[in-house]
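Pilot study result, target chain (73 residues):
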Amino acid sequence: MDWVLERTAHTGFLGVTLADEVFTDLDFADDVALLAEMVEILILALDVMRQKVCPFGLEIKWTKTKIGGWKCG
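Predicted structure:
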């Protein structure tokens, strides 16, 4: 999974900045949370990830995929 995430994160502007550090994802085993400041970037990252995992026989479960966010203030 780390191999896939490295190739997914470096291809775009994926990531959010918190306390002067950039976080692109949170992952554990086969669960991943991609982080971005714009929904459009998340959609592009998901497409890149789909292309990267396909050769390994893996797929993104679109029915379990959620895109959301929070608002400050």
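One observation from the pilot: The mean pLDDT is 76. A full batch analysis is planned for the follow-on phase.
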